[in-house]
């Protein structure tokens, strides 16, 4: 498509992340892997996805380093798909997306909930700052700012967003 800005040409980590994992089938495949599915036929049966689309998405997930393809049978050769450390690190994101979707439903309308594996009690996932333990859902308390690798345009975008840090004594 002429004139389209490619995600890899953008500096924003959100655009590059959405380009990598934001496709609908990708998120559903990852969700299945988190639920213990590892084989092509399991994904296909559970998701009712075409072979060509599933093949394409699995190749992309392997190429992006989120899944690893391992043989589990030699004659004929069959493969399973297992999470890499990078892939496992996406679980909180998928949990947060599911929680966001459930938050706008009544408890009776929810078809899937997150529960404590030991007690079976429903849990409420939240995103917190690891240093302070504070919830990040307060949009006034936390803002994006330019990082060390920011371009001049990115620095300009976020100029004045946060007060200058106090100088050490």
Give structural attributes.
169 residues; mainly alpha; Arc Repressor Mutant, subunit A; two-stranded antiparallel ribbon; 7 helices; 2 strands; 9% strand; globular; disordered N terminus
What can you tell me about this protein's structure?
By secondary structure, the chain is mainly alpha-helical. It has a domain at 10-88: Winged helix-like DNA-binding domain superfamily/Winged helix DNA-binding domain (Arc Repressor Mutant, subunit A, Orthogonal Bundle), CATH 1.10.10. It is 38% helix and 9% strand. It has seven helices and two strands, in the order H-H-H-H-E-E-H-H-H.
Blueprint of the fold:
Elements: H1 13-21, H2 24-34, H3 40-47, H4 51-63, E1 67-74, E2 77-83, H5 85-88, H6 91-103, H7 152-157
Antiparallel strand pairs: 1-2
